[in-house]
Amino acid sequence: MSIPDVSLTTFVFGSADRWRTKPALIDGLSGAIVSYGDLMLTAAQVCSGFLVSGLRKGDVCAVFSPNRPEFASVFYGVIKAGGVITSLNPLYSVAELTHQLRDSGARYLVCAPELLSKGATAAARAGIEELFTLGDAEADGATTLATLMVRGMDRVVDPPTIDPRTDLAALPYSSGTTGLPKGVMLTHRNLVASVTQWDAVERMSSDEVLLAALPFYHIYGMVCVMTVGLHAGTTLITLPHFDARTFCHVTEKYRITTAYLVPPMIRTLAKHPVIDEFDLSSLEHLVSSAAPLPESMAQLCTQRLGRPVRQAYGMTEASPSTHLTPRGNPRAAPVGLALPNTEFRIVDVDQQHDVDVDEIGEVWIRGPQVMRGYLNNPEATGTMIDEDGWLHTGDIGYADRNSYLFVVDRAKDLTKFRSLQYADRELLLAMVEDITARRDAARRVTFQTLLLDSVRESVIATDLDHHISFWNKGAEALFGWSGEEALGQPLEALIIPDAVSAHEELSKELSTADRVGKWQGQALRRRRDGSELWTDLVVSRMAHADDRPAGFIAIHRDVTDLHANQEMIRDSRERMRNLASSLLIAREQERAAIARDLHDDVGQTLTRLRIDLCWLTERVPKRLRTRRSKEIVDLVDSLVLRVQNISAELRPPVLDDFGLEAAIEWQVRQFSTWNTCLCDLDLELSRLHVHRNRDTAVFRIVQEALTNVARHSQARRVVVRGRVTSTELDVQIKDDGVGFPEAKRQSAQSLGLISMRERAESIGGQLEVASGAGIGTTVRVRVPVDPSDLERARR
User: Fold this and answer.
1) Which contiguous run of DSSP H or E holds residue 25?
2) 3 state DSSP class of 720
3) Nearest to 225 by CA among 201, 241, 204
4) Contact 74/145 with Cβ under 8 angstroms?
């Protein structure tokens, strides 16, 4: 399929003259209409306004707004001027806004009126050159969009020439499969290719009416709804957020035909009672993407609405689509067939080779829609895209015989409609490694068990001069010599590989057996055909009835294969240690994600609830106000505090922001608030450079140790001490409590100690526990430190 070599705006509005008077976007709440002619005009005016304001090709303009028709004018206007759009989640905090504005290098910020206060604060912190508002009046130092467009009418500046293959059009942010959100560099060609590929399969008609509830700031709404829909000449009904009643209302009012959704929305349509109150018969096409949708849920929605639910697949790094289920074959389970010009592979996670049909592996993608890379992060780009151009999605799936892709699980958290944010890749890789490692370990254990069960023991006796006096059937089978041939022969001449070294080795074995009664170990031996084998050998001294030395008896067991596999077994153990480390990291990442969701989702919702309650209370006549009104507000305040405490317990922000020393100090303060035991703190860790995995592991060990002190020790005093040398980090938690016996320290039921020991080993450290009656308990963790960490810290 041919990809047009044009800029995105040229491509999107190439046929728009045919629909000049037709509604392009309708605000689903206010009913405001923007025709295609209006959209092209306002986009051109935005383009001119930014050019007159000094925007140069490649400059970044950030847009901070929920879905509204003006979003499209700014989006295509900036891109037409040669600028790059970076879109911001309307629910972002000031800190998150500031990070993306700084990281993207944005010069301009365009805000929705209701977000202007937060946007202005972030703009000031990030050094934004000019702030604009989509509202009618200027506020917080912002210029209105109308004023910007008037600027472009005073002086004409021609837009720059766009190179679709190299010039960026959009810079959405994604965590990829690991780490903090990164700027995804999408060129004009990436987005033109994505729209062209989608259109080739979807075959959207200009008569269709699209629901635009998916946020435009997210790549799914930005491309698959806004850009695809406008290129096809459809009418988009915008909603700033999704709720069941509003969805049903606008669907019935505007006769929406096509809805691109995410799984939580599909579940709402399948189960919400309000659905039955409206006429939704206009809906013809329902597509779910951004996260796996259970087939049962898709079927339930299909049964309720009488329309099939199809799936699509992709990611921000693929602009975003790679797979789509065609309208003519609406299967619910798969996420679709590969789009035109798109290749995909299912690759074994361990061996990195393609797997067979219906076998599970990691999904790799290659095509013209794959991003140019991550902004200012070549290392992350190299991890995500290999030298052959394959995008390693981190998602696990399989393909059937008809080349339909099925996604089993995603490297990211399941999509949350609130933000469509993704989490890290490590969680999935750890899960896959866990399955693989356990499977391989089981196979090795089975193999070794069968091997040892099948070996026939060889029993050989010699006199004091090492001549063979007994040779059993097992020895015949093992070494190839018959009993008649072996009897009387010197042992070293028959089964020892090298006469000189073998004599020394044999002397060592026999002298040890003679001195202490037995020698046990592994020894190299030789068969009749000259081949060598390793044996598990036990040599015992024989004596006459009067205890005079009579000779030696040796029992050999062939362990050649076992010996050859020892390196593999050692590697297996190392892999298991690495797996434990990965699982601990994944657990911390999951806790961080839950903490972030609690803080952002629940905390913000409760804060909004408190504001609304206060607002409502102030407007209630004083004679109707009761003590219960205030108690409700106080209850919400206590819930906000509780959510903050839970979030901090899951992942203390101080650990990420200020490092290990500050985090331990915070934990000790927390410990002191809910425990009567006195806690002394003696830390000198300021020279230590921040290392996320090491600091997290040591912090959790301190946290677990203090919890054990509070629960079990009956201590009156505890001391937390930390030091760092040029080679080692040493942290100790010592209490004066009752202690506990050695047997309990070694018990498999001591889950707290096991957890601490696993955490220490996961970062290459050691955990030491000393405890007993009268001496209390000391937990000590020692972790090697790279001297370069200290060098960087001093700099």
Assistant:
1) strand 23-27
2) strand
3) 204
4) yes
* Cα–Cα distance, 412 to 393 (Å, whole number): 10
Please determine, for residue 685, whether its predicted confidence score (pLDDT) is greater than 90. Answer: no
Q: What percent of the chain has pLDDT over 90?
A: 45
Q: 521: helix, coil or strand?
A: strand
Place of tokens 């934990």: 667
* Encoded tokens for 405: 């892709």
> H-helix or E-strand containing 612?
helix 604-619
Helical spans, DSSP H, in 168-222: 188-202, 219
Q: Could you write out the DSSP letters of every residue in 439-505?
A: HHHHHHHHHHHHHHHHPPPEEEEE-TT-BEEEE-HHHHHHH---HHHHTTSBHHHHH-S-HHHHHHH
CA distance 50 to 36: 21
Tokens of 272: 């919400």
**Does 596 or 453 have the greater pLDDT score?**
596
CATH superfamily of 654-794: Histidine kinase-like ATPase, C-terminal domain (3.30.565.10)
- Each residue of 195-229: pLDDT tens digit? 999 999 999 999 999 999 999 999 999 999 999 99
Kindly indicate the confidence band of residue 726, based on its pLDDT and cuts at 50, 70 and 90. Answer: confident
Rounded Cα distance between 62 and 74, Å, is: 10
User: Mind listing the pLDDT tens digit for each residue in 172-193?
Assistant: 998 655 557 899 999 999 999 9
Q: Identify the DSSP state of 713.
A: I
Calpha distance 88→216 (Å, rounded): 9
DSSP one-letter string for 121-151: HHHHHHT-SEEEESSSS--TTPEEHHHHHHH
- Domain borders along the chain are 458-558, 654-794
CATH architecture entry for 458-558: 2-Layer Sandwich (3.30)
Q: At 538, is the pLDDT very low, low, confident or very high (cuts 50, 70, 90)?
A: confident
Identify residue 727 by its one-letter amino acid code: T
Q: How many CA atoms lie within 13 A of 591 on its CB side?
A: 16
CA–CA separation, 569 and 441 (whole Å): 9
pLDDT confidence of 33, banded at 50, 70, 90?
very high
DSSP state of 409: E
Lowest mean pLDDT among 252-256, 443-447, 787-791: 443-447
Q: Which of 60-64, 84-88, 489-493, 541-545 has the lowest mean pLDDT?
A: 541-545
Instruction: Give residue-wise pLDDT tens across range 491-509.
Output: 877 888 765 455 566 666 7
DSSP string, 652-663: -HHHHHH-HHHH
Buried b (16+ CB within 10 A) or exposed e, 101-112: bebbbbbbbbbb
